[in-house]
Amino acid sequence: MLSGTTEVSEWRDALGTAHVSINSDDLRQSGVATFPTASTVTAILKPANRAEVQRCVRIANRFRVPLYPISTGRNWGYGSRSPVRDAALLDLGRLNRIIELNEELGYVTLEPGVTQRQLHEHLRESGSRLWMDATGASPDCSIIGNTLERGFGHTPMGDHCSHACALEVVLPMGECIETGFGRFPDSAAAHVSRWGTGPSLDGLFSQSNFGIITRMTVWLMPAPEHHCAFFLQTDRPIGEIIDAIRPLRMSGTATTTRCFPAAGNIPGRKRTAKRRCRVRPWLA
Ligand SMILES: Cc1cc2nc3c(=O)[nH]c(=O)nc-3n(C[C@H](O)[C@H](O)[C@H](O)COP(=O)(O)OP(=O)(O)OC[C@H]3O[C@@H](n4cnc5c(N)ncnc54)[C@H](O)[C@@H]3O)c2cc1C
To answer: Which of 153, 198, 257, 273 has the smallest count of CB within 10 Å of its CB?
Structure first.
């Protein structure tokens, strides 16, 4: 508990008291995941914009407090909101603006708190002819959070990292960079070309915590005339299914990402699944 310590009072000055929590129930709840966790959340910070994120980072640096960023914190199955080690949680849910929807070029630029549901409703309400990729996770998951976790959806744009660019990143010392052509002022290509010039930086920021993403561009696709999902159920070993589907994928007949949720079919996995079930509920 950091009550009365200077970093908390400085964060409160930066964000307002209402947006910094050291309430023990809130902190404990933030450490809850779908498996037992050992790390402690020492404070929860809820900045509203990039400038506030930068202030949080600079204060954390001065007091040498690790920060763990989350966008919506619904990383269920992979740690939820729980940091990998003791840290203050930087909850980016208040940065939830859809900055630009470009109908002609097929992209949307958004902030980390924007959810799948929010973008879907925005596309529908604006009468867009564009489609977003979507995951099988909650509609209230973050599009940026999922992309940074290298998540996947179920359309031809299902590999999310491959369909995102122009990251705005707050670095560990608090300075801000933009990736790709975004670093050139008013670049027309910033939102449609991933590479820019020179080394490509985007990959550094997925599954890394090397920077805090405060904005990203995600590509959209023209709504297809037809979309068909296939669900197969089988007791056969999953390797056989993968081998059977591979030629369809390689020939371009199947264009989407596939999902194999039947862990019980993977040799050796059944026992793991059972063992995990046995420890739940760990909070009881
Ligand atoms: C039933 C079920 C179905 C699921 N289906 C899918 C699926 O189809 N596809 C899939 O990919 N996942 C799936 N998931 C897993 C998970 O729920 C999603 O990946 C979800 O999108 C992750 O949570 P989030 O979007 O809230 O991201 P967050 O929890 O906010 O972020 C995930 C991680 O990324 C990093 N991060 C987040 N935001 C930032 C930032 N702004 N800057 C720097 N680092 C950041 C952090 O390390 C964070 O822990 C499923 C889970 C369940 C329970």
So the answer is: 198
| Nearest ligand 1 atom, CA 214 | 41
Q: Give the domain CATH number at 203.
A: 3.30.465.10
28-74 pLDDT, tens per residue? Answer: 999 899 999 999 999 999 999 999 999 999 999 999 999 999 999 99
Residue 228 domain-assigned?
Answer: no
| Range of the structural domain that residue 271 is part of | 238-279
Own/partner pairs for 186-192, CB < 8 Å, 24+ apart?
Answer: 190/165, 190/166, 190/217, 191/100, 191/102, 191/105, 191/107, 191/109, 191/165, 191/166, 191/217, 192/105, 192/107, 192/165, 192/219
**Residue 111, domain member (yes or no):** yes
The whole-model pTM stands at: 0.90
The set of protein residues with a Cβ atom below 6 angstroms from ligand 1 is 69-77, 92, 112, 135-137, 141-142, 144-146, 148-149, 151-152, 209, 212-213
Cα 26 to Cα 21, 41, 45, 72: the distances in Å are 7, 9, 11, 15
Are 111 and 154 in the same domain? yes
Residue 232 in any domain: the answer is: no
Residue at token pair 């027309």: 188
